[in-house]
Every structure is written in C-alpha cells, then in structure tokens.
Amino acid sequence: MSKLKLILPVFFFFISLTAFPQREDVGNYEYDKEYLFGVNKNTNGGLIGGIVFKAGTRIDDSQFSFWGVELSNVKSQKEARYNTVLGNSYIFGKSNYLYAIRPHYGREIVLFKKAPNQGVQVSALAAAGPTIGLIAPYFIEYAVSRVQTVTEQYNPEVHQSRFNILGSGRLFQGIGQSEIAVGATLKAALMFEFGVFRSSATGLEVGYMLEGYSKEIPLIPTAENNQFFQSAYFTFFYGFRK
Asked: How many CB atoms are located within 10 Å of the residue 223 CB?
C-alpha cells in the first residue's frame, strides 16, 4: 500500500507532462489558413442539427474570407413524436424528410482580438450560397390487419389510424427516391474562439439563418408547409490553422 502511494503521484506527474507539452505557438495567434469541423444545433433540427466544414483564408489583419459546406436535417415546427405499443417511436403526419446541402461563401471580420495567452477572440461573419434540398420519403410500419404489416411512405389518406402505426422506417430508407428542391441560404453570426495555440482552434458560432426553396416542401401534408425556413443556431467548431 505504501508503494502504491509513492507510485501514484509519479504516475500522474508523467501523465500531466504528456497531456500538457510545451508548445512554441502559445499566445501566437497569427495564421493565414484555418480548417474547421463543426457540429450544429438549430431550432429546425433535432438533437444534432447537422455537420459543417469551413475553410478560411486571411485577407488582412482583421478580415478573412471563407467557404464551407453544411449538411443538415430540416424539420417542421409541427412535428410531434409518439411511442407505439411496441416501444418504437414515430412522427405522426410526417410524409417527407428534408436534407439540406448548403455550400456557402462569406467574410469574417475580427471585432476583438485575443489577449496573449488568455481571453476570447470575437468575430462577426456573414455568408450566402445555394441550397440543394433532398426531399426523401418518410416511411412508417403500418398494421393493415392483425397478421399483416407494410412499410411504406406515410400517406394521410391511407394511414388514417395513429394506433395502427408500429414504428418508423430505417434511417435514410428511401433516400434513392428523393426529389430535389433548389434554393439559397443567408446567414449572419458571431464567432467566439477560445484556443490558446496558433496551430489549433476551438470555438462557438452563434447566429441566424434564412433559407428559401423554389417550391413548398411537403414535410407534413395536413399542416401548413413552407417554402422559407428560418432558424437560430449554434455550432461547436474544432480545427487547425497554419
């Protein structure tokens, strides 16, 4: 037991040396390129609203240009999830998914630079770009009798009994049957960057997004469907710089 008491402090000491090595770029925030990966949460999405990739290039001391692409699942505000007698869950009335692919280009202006070895860098950014919407069918498992079930796209004229629905289809089931809707996206945000090294970046982007499509998206046929979607969002970023 006494040997263990002597070994443990030494063990944790070496772990701390490994976890926090000396870095030459501590407090050095000058960089020309950055590549960031992010996970998005928004008011039109689920627990995870989407994933984002962003690449930026320095223009001058306080301005950057960037391009990126975002993949997101857009939901209707009218969606409500129910549980079945089998313990599965489904969204009653939902007939289609909307998967949005958003390539975009924008500018970022640094409002407040980070103090040496501490603080937060704050930037304002705006971006715009086209949107490609994939309208994929939402499948449910439906009991047509006591001994027969079918898995098919929800249709309010056919699947009228909520209690006959036994669950939803598999993730991305029917993606090959998707229709395409073309649109555009605008967004504005504030970026808070917390990293202390030039070679890496950790941050949070908080903003507002507006996107519109060339036609209404029939997510829930029996409800009011929209051609335009707006959302507040935040994205956690992590990446590297050079």
From this structure: 14
Helical residues (DSSP H) of the chain, grouped into ranges: 2-19
Pairing assessment for the beta strands 33-42 and 228-241 based on DSSP bridges: antiparallel
Which residues touch 139 (CB under 8 Å, ≥6 apart)?
Answer: 151, 152, 153, 154, 168, 169, 170, 173, 174
Q: Which residues contact 185 (CB under 8 A, 6 or more apart)?
A: 100, 102, 104, 127, 128, 129, 130, 131, 209, 210, 211
Which pair of structure tokens corresponds to residue 91? Answer: 């969204």
Decide: 135 and 98 in contact? Cβ < 8 Å.
Answer: yes
Mean pLDDT score, 20-32: 57
Say how far apart CA 56 and CA 157 lie, in whole Å: 49
What local confidence, expressed as pLDDT, does residue 183 receive? 96
Query: Distance between CA 213 and CA 100 in Å, rounded?
Result: 10
Label residue 177 exposed, middle or buried (CB < 10 Å: 0-12, 13-18, 19+). exposed
Q: Which pLDDT belongs to residue 145?
A: 86
Q: Which region among 94-103, 204-213, 222-231 has the lowest average model confidence (pLDDT)?
A: 222-231
- Residue-averaged pLDDT of the chain: 85
Whole-angstrom Cα distance, residue 61 to residue 8?
Answer: 47
Assign 91 a pLDDT band (cuts: 50, 70, 90): very high
Share of the chain above pLDDT 70, in %: 85
